[in-house]
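#struct-pred

JT: dropping the chains for the assembly here, can someone run the whole complex?
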Amino acid sequence: MPGKLKVKIVAGRHLPVMDRASDLTDAFVEVKFGNTTFKTDVYHKSLNPQWNSEWFKFEVDDEDLQDEPLQITVLDHDTYSANDAIGKVYIDIDPLLYSEAATVISGWFPIYDTIHGIRGEINVVVKVDLFNDLNRFRQSSCGVKFFCTTSIPKCYRAVIIHGFVEELVVNEDPEYQWIDRIRTPRASNEARQRLISLMSGELQRKIGLKVLEMRGNAVVGYLQCFDLEGESGLVVRAIGTACTLDKLSSTAAFLPACNSPSKEMKESPLVHPPSHGCRSTHNSPIHTATGSRLTQNFSVSVPTLIYTGMGSGSAGKEGGPFKALLRQQTQSALEQREFPFFTLTAFPPGFLVHVGGVVSARSVKLLDRIHNPDEPETRDAWWAEIRQEIKSHAKALGCHAVVGYSESTSICEEVCILSASGTAAVLNPRFLQDGTVEGCLEQRLEENLPAGCGFCHIPYDELNMPFPAHLTYCYSCRKQKVPDVLFTTIDLPADATVIGKGCLIQARLCRLKKKAQAEANATAISNLLPFMEYEVHTQLMNKLKLKGMNALFGLRIQITVGENMLMGLASATGVYLTALPTPGGIQIAGKTPNDGSYEQHISHMQKKINDTIAKNKELYEINPPEIPEEIIGSPIPEPRQRSRLLRSQSESSDEVIELDLSHGKKDAFVLEIDDTDAMEDVHSLLTDVPPPSGFYSCNTEIMPGINNWTSEIQMFTSVRVSRLSNINLTNQTLNKNFNDLCENLLKSLYFKLRSMIPCCLCHVNFTVSLPEDELIQVTVTAVAITFDKHQAVQTTKTQVEKSSQRASIDNEELLQFPLELCTDTLASHPFSSAKEHLESTSSNSGIPAAQRDRCNSWIELIKLKAQTIRRGSIKTTMPVEKASPLTEGHFRQRSAPACANSTVGVVKMTPLSFIPGAKITKYLGIINMFFIRETTSLREEGGVSGFLHAFIAEVFAMVRAHVAALGGNAVVSYIMKQCVFMENPNKNQAQCLINVSGDAVIFVRESELEIISTQQPIASCQPACSGGEIAT
Amino acid sequence: MTNELDIFVGNTTLIDEDVYRLWLDGYSVSDAVGLRVRSGILEQTGATAGVLQSDTMDHYRTFHMLERLLHTPPKLLHQLVFQIPPSRQALLIERYYAFDEAFVREVLGKKLSKGTKKDLDNISAKTGVTLKSCRRQFDNFKRVFKVVEEMRGSLAGNIQQHFLLSDRLARDYAAVVFFANNRFETGKKKLQYLTFGDLAFCAELMIQNWTPGAVADSQLDDMDVDLDKEFLQDLKELKVLVADKDLLDLHKSLVCTALRGKLSVFAEMEANFKNLSRGLVNIASKLTHTKDVRDLFVDLVEKFIEPCRSDRWPLNDVRLFLNQYSASVHSLDGFRHQTLWDRYMVTLRSCLLRMYHD
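RK: done, full complex below.
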């Protein structure tokens, strides 16, 4: 299906000086799409050229429209020698291909050069006419909407959630082709940028086709990643969740209460008030399985883990049959799918029935050259293997589905660790297929599944548990069994009831490894992995106990491989779920109880730990109601027992090795100090300092226990690279170094953002990489959101109230806070007197009041005034006493050209799927950008810090410019997926690759929304907030 | 373990006003960290010195990147790399262009040339303003000067339009540019008591009334930076007020009659009238010479302010005298240059009153 792409080059500004002689530039523009190129005229001798070109028209297939980026190159014309490139702009035109998104891309784009960075801006207008609207969905996948957001986007309703879609494409990396030896770094970087842009276009189109096959119309939770495999090639892979989405009617979308797409669904019944529960118990079973297979390429699959709470089962007396029926249905719905996986982390109410626990699988592979890029079978097979494993783990937990699913890789030389993880769950079939099968069942189910605790109930049969576990009756409903601890990779469900606030919990770990080659290396790594998994798990558990909490959400474990070490970093948000039992404390036991001083030391430590727990409970406001002991399932405390690590010696490839990470059944969590390692563990437990008062942090979308967000947000990326002193590197010193690095980074963040207190760091996302032998790189992206300390909204227990609250809280409080970046602190403005003066001036001088109101900034006022002055009265020689020399009377008449008054519109960026205090009214399309920056004058650019600081700032700027050009004013679900930094200080060189993505949206402040909706219904909201300056 | 790389980039660029001030004041990172530690910030926030060091470095790096844009403030508004709220942009610009009183008094009226720039280390030593800060302030003066030097129209207006400064600051810069262009001597010891405010006030009045732009219809060469040559030439005509003995006596008697009993220093005034009048009129008639223009302030102090001060005239008496002195000229029938006289005297009177203090 062909389409017509139309491009107009309007103007440039702030171009660099290309001709030293004249200090000016003779710029022209090449516009390229596919194999067609157009050129503008040369605009001589200007740094602000006005090309005002005709419309360049490309007639192309829509397949190309999806794959190809529009490539705009700005050049300096040179009569005698080759024209010099100033820089390029790549524009992804995908957002123009579906009807509801953007209709035009128009605005100022930074002109980017991989060697010099941003060099001025260019104003471009892009439009697409698709022929034959009716049938365009068939041949290509134009029209399938993509969302990075891992929940159902705010102005849509999920009709059906179809399930997992995945695809990968491979190619040779241009950087490693023979031609790279003879071309310039710039050419090489550009080839790479272009290739990746092409590959992601192709990938997106292919995924789109799969979605259409499934009869869906959108991909939610779209996650695309690059594997830079070096010599062996370049892999671009993506996963997502296919859905059929319905746009909510605009009137509904404008109701502030309608924050979730669940409005028209039946609300779940009230949560039962917390009933009296049983005593605390404890255990943490881990189901592991491993197989090692030697395929044609070397591959080791390492023990994989299932972190759970416990299995349940007997499902309550009356609930039983329905549950069985439900299971049957879900099963049938899901079994049609190869992989019943969902990349979503938040769900429509009622979707998630039970949560089993975290399932994860890792596999170590040796990379070899991809022989045939068109048949990326090996890579496909690798991932299929891992997914199969995940699926079987989920089954073992009595779950048919995996939610909050994600995949990642870590590559070092030719070794690659593939990882996948998710949360085993039982889902409500209602969303999974069409039809009205459920009817009465649905109703009965909802009666039986109290909303606040249902998801905690164990999904499988108590009598047939896959591992030793300990269960109690649910503390909320008292009817069903729950585990004592629950680990998940998803966000806290909206209807979950928690006590107190949550907090960020991290487990950090390093393991030295001998340098080795190929298979020996892979074997060494795969041998280390289970121990790392075990320790990460233990650390998480200890820290969770120390916080007095009983569940982890958003768990993400990253294992990074380097030349001589492995790093593990797990982040999650701890909370206290009311449905789960109160966690026991941590008990320390010494190995040699006879030694008196040792005993004393132990008891001292014990006291410190107890104090910390008490302090944490206070800090996070965890004060569960005292519950008289009951005799439901109270376990008999067993003697403390160090967890066992069982490994069979079997060489057989198919044999499953049990790695039992359970800590047995015990009343309190016991840490046995039997060697220095354990001592270290205890110490490191206590070294984690809580954030300063007024700060909270979490890695989930929203902070459990805080719901009164105000509108100020600050997204940031922070990068640190640390060099290890390589003398006496031991696991302990390494651990300590790594721990310090992360803790110091957090401390710096708290310090930097102190002006926002009280605030919460949300979606804190740590990434670790090991770029070189002694270098550790930690990258953090997060958003700080302010909240109102004094107007804490009463936590209510009903879901109905809760959901309406979530939407309206900000609404009520918004007016007391700066609504916009630009209007804030006018009162306390250093020039407020000047401003008043200006205002009085301008009111005298005939600037219409409306115009003055529109000046939202002081600078604009100045400009306005400057213009007014020129229109003002004639300067006279009146005696000065009669009028101060400042008043307008003394400025003479002059008609100066009005200065262009286009201040840059504000574009917000956030890793979250929402913007506090605002309503997303439109999704404009996915932003997926890849940049390379290289320098050969590292010192001159301020060293590595200066280089990367500038580059990240530039990446933000380019993302904002693209969003603004689409007519948007924010990016949500923003993520920096890759930040690969390499340096060679001796050669004064550095290179960095960054890949970012997110959803471009238009949002409207809820306060504005009300005004708008009373005046004019829908259309007028857009200009009020659009950040994009449309060229005139 | 050392941090090789340590950066923080916000979607909205974080600006710490305190660190900005330290940076503007020319402190090195380590000095700035030291000063911040002494401010007690560690105790307030519970941060460590390492955190402070990293934070300061980060801000310095940001300011360094912003500096290029601050040289042409409109660029700061249009650039896309740093997302800064307009109020913050205004603050960045205003503070960057702000200058120290001590520094400006040293440079005011000097040629903004390389020679003066070489002298900055002496100025730095004398004023206690760091050399780095001196350089920034000097470069700001020079940059503003270069941009508006040849420009038509209101000087302060031009500065405000091209540098987006606040009203107050733009007017201060207009004074700096005006002084630099006319090279008024302000460094003499007897002028030391004058503040920048005094001089800026005078500059403003002169720009208002003594430049070609002051005459509404002379649009063609509407320049604010130079004094009106024609006007200076005409001022020679005033000489008749002191050269013609009858006119001088008549003038004196008019003033004395009007002020009798109203001045506490009447006798001194009467005795000094001719000297003072000669002083003021001679200053006017000599302004065609560049040298005398440069010495305008020295002359005003020597010829008028010092004599009055030595006789301990109260400020109010000076005001009454000057009012009467300029008004009485209108009653001198033989004198034809009333408009000229007013253009000269109105400005001069205000300047003298402003300058008349200890």
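JT: nice. Residues 229-355 of chain B form one domain. Chain B has three domains: 17-82, 101-193, 229-355.
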